[in-house]
Design goal:
The protein is α/β, with parallel strands linked by helices. It is built from 16 helices and eleven strands. It has a seven-stranded parallel sheet with strand order 4-3-2-1-5-6-7, sandwiched between helices. A four-stranded mixed sheet has the order 9-8-10-11, with helices on one face. The radius of gyration is 21 Å and the shape is globular.
């Protein structure tokens, strides 16, 4: 690379954030950390700050921010600690920040992700929820401000790698179909009648990936794959008839792209988030991710099957929502966040995640969304509706 690029990592203490810092550490001449942001993981953020010495730090939780400030009293290294209210939007707009890793989970990451797009940054999108709930607004904002939007989800990054060989290439040329693969999660073969008694601990034990609790539950229900299907349609400009999902338990092939001439290109690799992170950080060049190349001799068999929507009704619901468009994806995402947290808190049973989300989606009027304010209003109403349904379940 011609120079060291400044990076801001939003959600630095999460799985994607930690993996991003691992890749940065392996390529010290290419990147330097300008800003780190987290919610409340003070100890880990302190470790990251001491090692990478960013100029700015944001902690969204005020109590955590005070603890962070106290811990650094008297230390030689003193970053600027920005207030949570506008700190995220401030750091993504800094002129010395060229790359923004958007890895804040859920709707909380939308305002800062939009701000990075408005600032014309290279935006590494690990927060699929921000795109799902904002739809065309984020895509339009990125295009309008010449921001470079690169996907970090392993599947979407894999699709991008299969389609884009050059920054100026028409990535849609000749594409017949995008196929997203899914492991099927921990309950692929569990008898359906046993799902009623699934615990949060069981749902969070993904067979292939190490992830946070929310995304792990989404992977178990396959809502994650449904959100990814919506995201793929938005990112690559295809309707849902051109995007499909295939169960692939080994998680070796992350996505496939089928072309009009009958050829099919697959992206293969070990299930490690450092691969898509390194690809996006260096695009259009390549850097070391710290991940070994795939040993094909270890792949004794690769299995594929169509998803069972009776087992995974959340996937079918997401497909319906994608077809409906307008505010439906925003409602789906908001209701799902509330339902998943209720399950993690043991207020509802595992199958009731789908029950809550489907009821909210069915009862909510479709609306056009053109501004951040309108998106946040629909999001808030959907959350309230989900909480109301959950309270009735509990009672």
């Amino acid at each position: 690379m011609s120079h060291s690029k400044g990076i801001a990592i939003l959600g630095s203490t999460g799985s994607v954030g930690c993996n991003t810092l691992d890749v940065v550490a392996r390529n010290p001449a290419d990147f330097h950390v300008v800003a780190l942001a987290a919610q409340r993981s003070v100890e880990l953020l302190l470790e990251q700050s001491q090692r990478f010495q960013p100029d700015y730090v944001v902690l969204s939780d005020p109590t955590a921010a005070e603890h962070f400030k106290t811990a650094l009293q008297g230390a030689a290294y003193q970053p600027t600690l920005l207030e949570a209210a506008h700190g995220l939007e401030q750091i993504v707009a800094l002129p010395q920040v060229e790359i923004v890793m958007a890895a804040i989970v859920g709707a909380a990451g939308l305002p800062s992700t939009l701000a990075a797009a408005q600032a014309g940054k290279t935006l590494l999108l690990a927060n699929k929820e921000a795109l799902v709930m904002s739809g065309e607004l984020l895509i339009h904002t990125a295009h309008q401000n010449n921001a470079c939007l690169l996907p970090i989800d392993s599947e979407h990054n894999a699709v991008f790698q299969c389609m884009a060989n050059h920054p100026d290439a028409d990535i849609k040329a000749g594409v017949e179909e995008i196929i997203l693969t899914a492991s099927g999660g921990p309950f692929l073969t569990t008898p359906i009648e046993q799902l009623q008694t699934i615990t949060p601990e069981q749902a969070c034990k993904h067979p292939n990936w190490s992830m946070g609790k929310k995304i792990s539950v989404d992977s178990a229900t396959m809502m994650n794959k449904g959100l990814e299907l919506i995201e793929a349609c938005l990112l690559f400009g295809f309707d849902s008839s051109k995007v499909s999902v295939l169960i692939h338990p080994q998680s070796v092939i992350h996505a496939l792209v089928a072309y009009k001439d009958g050829s099919m290109i697959a992206h293969m690799g070990y299930p490690d988030m450092r691969v898509p992170i390194a690809h996006a950080l260096a695009w259009p060049e390549r850097i070391s991710s710290g991940v070994a190349k795939l040993d094909l001799s270890e792949c004794q068999s690769l299995q594929f099957q169509q998803p069972d929507t009776d087992r995974f009704p959340c996937l079918a619901l997401a497909m319906q929502v994608q077809a409906a468009g307008q505010s439906a994806p925003t409602v789906l995402n908001a209701a799902n966040e509330i339902a998943v947290q209720a399950f993690l808190d043991e207020h509802i049973a595992y199958p009731q995640i789908y029950q809550v989300v489907s009821e909210v989606v069915a009862a909510t009027e479709l609306l056009p969304l053109t501004t951040l304010e309108s998106i946040l209003a629909v999001d808030a109403n959907a959350r309230d509706a989900a909480r109301h349904i959950i309270s009735n379940i509990e009672n």
